[in-house]
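tokens incoming
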């Protein structure tokens, strides 16, 4: 492909395999194939349903609005009476009351949301009237028939699907459910997920560091990402690089979780035991290495049907592969409909190197718009998989196709926003 090809949506176009490494699209497809969507459901009160995935579609119980009502504060009248020099005010219609009846030849004071009085067919805004002699009003200008009235069912019809099964519920969706009278929602149970980080050098953040030790970044980071994605975080376990311990722990975790995310030990060093441990446990490896930078050693396997996403230890690599594979796996596990994350074209603000071979996802920060209306991005000259700070100020990744030999200032690049 060239960088000027239209963007296929969704996907990045980085579809090159590299030796035995899977292409990114294949890795994603195979990872998703490991995941069985959640089927257990529970009923939750509406106000506690944010972030949950709807298991049963919500339909409107009634038309909305349920009855004709005023869209403005003003006066309800018969359009045919609008020619009169003045209209006596014959009463008041307020929200929450049953509809009144309008006497012919009169106007009724009406407030927003009040049922339209029987006999009225038009509402005149208060600002378009003036007081007339006695308890009467005069119209400043000729009204439009039917103006300022909300008609029954103009927003939604009884029986309409408002929120579909598989939708993740946000404040807007919850508002729609409330408007439709749904007090409780049937949602999928949160997937139970545990995080296992491995590394002899790792120490829990907040504890003093021994010489040569580092603080565990991925444990808290992946745990936070899982919680934000609507999972029940069952365990966060940190272990040294000891195969026996890893094996026993993974075996236990696989029995009481819907998915496991690991970090570290996924590469080919002497202290990298994840692949062997997974093999010892009879895990079926679906992905064993991906043609991507960063994150090449990522593995996806299943232990007795429980998917395991084994991320590399380098924090930016772990974050990147969480964004590409982890989120999509969790969405599927949660019963959510697939997210459509589409790339868009941006322009790079400086020359950028890339070594052909594997595609690269490089953190990029949007800094503004160019004269052609496209966003311009700034990003580092290379990706360091250990430098999480590269992603800190970034808004997403720009994608270097495997065969790309670098970009010049002003070139187009595909941009994948962070989720
Ligand atoms: P590994 O994937 O275990 O070979 O680790 C690759 C690099 O990432 C090494 O420099 C590790 O020290 C570092 N690393 C591994 N796990 C973590 C972690 N949980 N937090 C921060 N850095 C890590
Ligand atoms: Mg390690």
């Amino acid at each position: 492909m060239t960088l000027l090809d239209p963007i296929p949506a969704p996907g990045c176009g980085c579809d090159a395999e590299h030796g035995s490494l899977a292409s990114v699209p294949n890795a994603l497809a195979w990872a998703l194939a490991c995941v069985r969507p959640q089927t257990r459901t529970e009923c939750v009160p509406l106000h506690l349903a944010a972030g949950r995935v709807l298991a049963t579609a919500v339909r409107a119980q009634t038309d909305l609005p349920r009855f004709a009502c005023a869209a403005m504060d003003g006066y309800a009248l018969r359009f045919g009476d609008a020619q009169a020099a003045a209209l006596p005010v014959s009463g008041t219609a307020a929200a929450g009351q049953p509809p009144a009846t309008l006497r012919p030849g009169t106007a009724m004071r009406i407030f927003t949301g009040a049922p339209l009085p029987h006999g009225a067919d038009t509402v005149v805004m208060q600002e378009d009237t003036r007081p007339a002699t006695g308890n009467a009003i005069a119209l400043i200008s000729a009204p439009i028939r039917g103006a300022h009235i909300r008609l029954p069912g103009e927003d939604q019809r009884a029986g309409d699907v408002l929120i579909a099964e598989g939708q993740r519920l946000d404040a807007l969706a919850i508002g729609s459910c409330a408007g439709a009278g749904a007090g409780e929602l049937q949602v999928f149970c949160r997937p139970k997920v545990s995080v296992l980080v491995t590394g002899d050098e790792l120490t829990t953040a907040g504890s003093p560091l021994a010489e040569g030790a580092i603080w565990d970044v991925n444990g808290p980071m992946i745990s936070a990402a899982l919680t934000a994605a609507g999972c029940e975080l069952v365990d966060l376990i940190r272990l040294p690089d000891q195969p026996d311990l890893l094996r026993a722990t993974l075996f236990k975790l696989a029995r009481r979780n819907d998915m496991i995310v690991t970090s570290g030990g996924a590469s080919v060093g002497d202290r990298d035991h994840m692949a062997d441990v997974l093999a010892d446990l009879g895990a079926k490896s679906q992905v064993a290495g991906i043609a991507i930078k960063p994150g090449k050693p990522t593995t996806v396997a299943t232990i007795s049907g429980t998917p395991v996403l084994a991320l590399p230890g380098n924090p930016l690599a772990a974050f990147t592969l969480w964004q590409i594979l982890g989120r999509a796996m969790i969405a599927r596990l949660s019963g959510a409909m697939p997210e459509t994350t589409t790339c868009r074209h941006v322009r790079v603000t400086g020359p950028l190197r890339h070594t052909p071979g594997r595609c690269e996802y490089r953190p990029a920060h949007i800094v503004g718009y160019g004269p052609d209306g496209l966003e311009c991005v700034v990003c580092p000259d290379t990706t360091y998989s250990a430098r999480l700070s590269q992603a800190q100020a970034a808004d997403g990744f720009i994608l270097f196709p495997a065969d790309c030999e670098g970009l010049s200032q002003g070139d187009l690049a595909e941009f994948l926003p962070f989720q």
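note: The pocket of magnesium ion (ligand 2) is lined by residues 199, 241, 264-265, 271, 313 (CB under 6 Å).
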